[in-house]
Design brief:
This protein is mostly beta strands. About 5% of the residues lie in helices and about 50% in strands.
């Protein structure tokens, strides 16, 4: 074989063995909230943050998209919450946003971290970690409270029904049964998440004594929110 022919064969073999260009790994871009942002929310409000991202992938495959939000930069176990989404190879951007409900817990101000990852046949790929600060808005709004009128018989327990709620979600209550300005019975409920649509009630632990005078009494409840704002409601209560 001539030297020229051998050279041609060697070039052909070399070209045949040359590795093809490898596909680039997936890239995950976090879109919002912006890294370093400050968010102002009520401590126990229903406001949530919408997190968004975008996946760029030359050779996509079926994958699991992982969203993580926590208070530790290294996402140590127990320091974050997460959500997973299954996406097909045809659409690796089948999930590009998530709004976790009630994501933040006091004390405030507080720093949070979030990231998005992909599970692929080649392993795990993560976005850069973004951070933001949550601060609590000042609360000057009184809670809502309403006591309903009722009746009870001497020798039976008194049942007082009411509603209470706050724009930040949680209240504590002091329920009272009064006669001529004097509190005869009282009960307390600690700071609790309440909803106006769900009625609350106080029930005396023991039956009302038969020696109590029959007539008009007053059922009252005072509500406080976490900021210390308070409101009082009273209604007529008749004992027979």
């Amino acid at each position: 074989m001539s030297r020229a022919a051998l050279a041609t064969v060697l070039v052909a073999v070399a070209l045949g063995l040359a590795p093809g260009a490898s596909a680039s790994p997936p890239q995950i871009t976090l879109l919002g909230p912006a890294n370093g942002a400050t968010l102002a929310y009520p401590a126990y409000g229903d406001a949530t943050t919408k997190f968004s991202w975008h996946v760029s992938w030359d050779a996509p495959e079926a994958t699991t998209v992982m969203f993580q939000l926590g208070t530790d930069r290294d996402f140590a176990p127990g320091s974050f919450v997460g959500e997973n989404f299954a996406c097909t190879a045809a659409d690796p951007n089948c999930a590009t946003s998530f709004a976790p409900p009630r994501s933040y817990a006091p004390p405030f101000p507080r720093i949070f971290y979030w990231r998005v990852g992909l599970i692929t046949s080649s392993g795990y790929f993560w976005s850069q970690t973004a951070t933001f600060k949550v601060v609590n808005l000042a609360d000057h709004v009184k809670p809502r409270v309403r006591v309903y009128s009722g009746t009870a018989r001497r020798g039976s327990r008194a049942y007082i029904q009411m509603r209470a709620a706050d724009n930040r979600g949680r209240v504590r209550l002091h329920g009272m049964l009064r006669y001529r300005g004097r509190t005869l019975y009282q009960g307390r409920m600690g700071m609790t998440a309440t909803y106006w649509a769900d009625p609350l009630s106080f029930l005396t632990r023991t039956p009302l004594p038969r020696f109590l005078p029959a007539g008009r009494y007053e059922a009252c409840a005072r509500a406080w929110d976490e900021a210390g704002n308070s409101a009082l409601s009273c209604a007529a209560y008749r004992i027979r």
